[in-house]
Amino acid sequence: MSLRLLAALPFIGILLGVPFVNRTEPLVLGMPLVLAWIVLWVVLTAAIMGVVYLFDPANRQPDAVDTEVQP
Amino acid sequence: MSALIIIAAITVVALGLGMRARQGHDMNLEQWSVGGRSFGTAFVFLLMAGEIYTTFTFLGGSGFAYGKGAPVYYILAYATLAYIISYWMLPPIWRYAKSHRLMSQPHFFSRKYSSPALGVLVAVVDVAALVPYLVLQFKGLGIIVATASYGAIASTTAIWIGAVVVTAYVIVSGVRGCAWNSALKDVMILAIALFLGIYLPIHHYGGLGEMFRQIDAAKPGFLTFPPRGQGIIWFQSTVLLTALGFFMWPHTFASSYTAKNDRIFRRNAMLLPLYQLILLFVFFCGFAAVLKVPGLTGGNIDLSLFKLSLMTFDPWFIGVIGAAGVLTALVPGSMILTTASTLVANDIYRGVLSRNADDAKVARIARFLVPVIALVAVGFTLNGGETIVALLLMGYNFVTQLFPALVCSLAARNRVTKQGAFCGIVAGVAVVALTTLMHVSIGQLMPFLPDALKDVNIGFLALAVNVVVLAIVSAITQPRAGEAPTRAGAH
């Protein structure tokens, strides 16, 4: 369950964060601040999903269980 | 001339690659429509990423940045959120599809709710959403070829050639042809977008920061969300809505069936967000054009990337860009075509006309339908006019209406009945169709709302109506305690 809470962060960052950074200056890496903010969250999302993947018990089962054909 | 040769060469390569993809596989229905459920991480990744890099993003993404400015950022945001949802949503869908040997999205609904009628409804909604999408790919193809060949090939000719190529390899190889061409397309588009997005700002402005500074000086407020119209509320509602609808597109939904195991989706959920950062460079191209090729309006904003390239590069390189552009139309076009034919054959033909048709017959009909659907799309492309963009937006809102019934069907105890799902989808789709055709916004419908809420995407209203109807009808039609509910759901 805590994994899902972690995955909720990008929703909060992107949907609720944008009103607070809706500005052009300062440019970050040459991009307007609001664009840089969204880009930051895209990168963070990849990192967060990486962590979720690592700690999700579903991914620790051996592959054999995954590929078993259900009748 | 050199541009034309390069575009022709890549088209031939795409045709060859698509045809060759069937080798070593007996093309039965399961192979043709879902690749025998044997694709590994790389191919599933490419099929799902293929959804993002269509002509709509290549031309439309840069055009949107050029014409509207900040609102284009939403494209980057919604897919990211959609991938997070996919981590938990796709594995159960895949497991159910595999154990019931499903071929398509309507198939999923009709099994889950034990209702062939629901399957037919979903298939009809899907086809209504897919055809405009295919039309848009063909339209983009025409624009790209006509521009990149410096007018040597008329867009009508290009559309016919493109339609024939796609039809040919889809008939022969089905989804396998799409997968191989996806690989080719992504390598090309990746390289081109990166190069253009970095080179154009440096070449024309001296750097990315300098470019944005000049745009901001010339057009204050262009790089941030405006207070009204496509402002922050619009951004938030549209991102959330399109993130929910993302995997409801039948071709994206069905491409999840091609996976070999369910871990692939979890792995892709972490890789795909990074991969779509390429879109950022497509935006840069559009922004670079703002001050250099001013004055494009209406539908012509989609030409901004090409107009700027034409004044920057030699013809042979325009050919390379054009070739990449052609692939962004052909590959999604072929996926849509495969899906639409499977839908009509498997879910409408088998669902309504002939319940007992076997897989071999359905496979034959699906192949027969490929050129039929392609012809319909070409017809719309050549005669459709501007209304098609409105149809596409409607299509996106259409497929989003499938989301509530789908999510509920994944719950361990699904309280939604088939009647509830059916009525909810009908109500949602009706609201979408009415509001789109009548061009009304939330502000016009509900003038009493505070200003801030008036720019909420109208799709939300449809989704809300959908959920309410679904809940009420499900409550009325709950199976009585004595009857054993015919609950669907294997796991």
Précis, in short:
The complex is a heterodimer of chains A (71) and B (491). Chain A has 71 residues and is an all-alpha fold.
DSSP helix count of chain B? 22
Binned strand content of chain B: under 5%
Tally the beta strands of chain A.
0
Helix share bin of chain A: 55-70%
Task: Please give a handful of descriptors for the protein shown.
heterodimer; A: 71 residues; mainly alpha; elongated; disordered C terminus; B: 491 residues; 22 helices; globular
Explain what you see:
The complex is a heterodimer of chains A (71) and B (491). Chain A has helices at residues 2-16, 33-55, 63-67. Chain A is mostly helical and 71 residues long. In chain A, helix 1 (2-16) packs antiparallel against helix 2. Mean pLDDT of chain A is 82; it is low at 64-71. With 491 residues, chain B is mainly alpha-helical. Chain B is built from 22 helices and no strands. Chains A and B meet through helix 1, helix 2 and helix 3 of A and helix 5, helix 10, helix 11 and helix 13 of B.
